[in-house]
Amino acid sequence: MPVGRGEICQVKRKVYVYELTTFSDVEQIDYTSFFSAINTKLVTIVESDNEGFFQIELEPGNYSLFVKEDGKFYSNLFDSNGIFPVYIELDKVSEVRFDITYKATF
């Protein structure tokens, strides 16, 4: 059944966890949310389930999250600290929502 306007389409993806990454650490494709290369250390890759849920244990620290779309890295959240920054604290659970919006219509 096709997804209609206003509905959320969640799909299975591999989530790439890198050390905290800034724009100086990537090869950005034009001025988009796509990257051809990430030049920081890959920490791990985890696959989400069919609903888009993923869970991973990480050491305390700062990380960046990406997924791959059509062979390119994608990440659409940025702040002054980096690209899709996630801060992991000792003995705490962090909840992250990764919206894939590049084909979305609003």
Automatic annotation (TrEMBL):
This is Carboxypeptidase regulatory-like domain-containing protein. It comes from the Bacteria.
